[in-house]
Design brief:
It is built from 8 helices and 4 strands. The protein is an alpha+beta fold and 203 residues long. It has one domain: Transposase IS200-like (Alpha-Beta Plaits, 2-Layer Sandwich), CATH 3.30.70. A 4-stranded antiparallel beta sheet has the order 2-3-1-4. Strand 2 and strand 3 form a beta hairpin. The longest helix has 24 residues. The C terminus is likely disordered.
């Protein structure tokens, strides 16, 4: 799925992006509940206020996030671009997590398979299917028998009114309501090749 452009795409305010990466040699990057939890703590620490999360899933040896870049005032940018600002925060997140993971599990060296990848999502149909693809991913990777029960995705948080990392209001409005959101996932709980939506959107 990775193309060279997925390493070079620049973040722009107001745009949607699919951010993903996996462990080096496809090895685990999450080995315990504490690992999953800590990654999400770091995401909030480093990216809250920069990105709105539409959907996400953490899946043992890889992760997916669908996000929207926020609009920034000049005083917030401090001479930087939205891309440089977010890219630096991403680096801090992954560096902090990798150092902690290596220390905790007695390993050394790179944890992630190169720099994180990102794809501009400029098509509304692609965005809808990407939300579903990300939520179903743990089941497709045989991490759980029913994706709706996976603790480390945004699906359950979208069903619940309690505050969370995900922009629940946007997601429900996008799908037309809670019932429509659930039915879209049930109806499309099958292999969706999101690569068919990439043409022209991975600049």
């Amino acid at each position: 799925m990775s193309h060279l452009s997925h390493y070079l795409t620049r973040f722009q305010s107001g745009n949607f992006y699919h951010i993903y990466n996996r462990g080096v040699d496809r090895k685990l990057i999450f080995k315990s509940r504490a690992n999953y939890f800590y990654f999400m703590v770091l995401w909030k620490r480093y990216l809250d206020g920069y990105l709105d999360v539409v959907s996400y899933s953490l899946n043992a040896n890889h992760f997916h996030f669908l996000v929207r870049v926020r609009h920034f005032e000049e005083y917030q940018l401090l001479g930087e671009t939205p891309h440089s600002l977010i890219a630096e925060q991403m680096k801090r997140l992954f560096r902090t997590y990798a150092l902690a993971f290596n220390k905790n599990h007695g390993r050394t060296g790179s944890l992630f398979d190169g720099p994180f990848k990102r794809v501009h999502v400029g098509d509304s149909k692609y965005l809808s299917y990407l939300v579903q693809y990300i939520h179903v991913n743990p089941e497709k990777n045989q991490l759980i028998h029913d994706f709706t029960l996976w603790d480390w995705s945004s699906y359950k948080f979208i069903l619940s009114p309690r505050k969370s990392l995900v922009d629940r209001d946007f997601v429900l409005e996008w799908f037309g309501g809670l019932k429509e959101f659930v039915m879209f996932h049930v109806k499309n709980n099958q292999d969706v090749d999101i690569r068919t939506f990439l043409s022209g959107d991975d600049d």
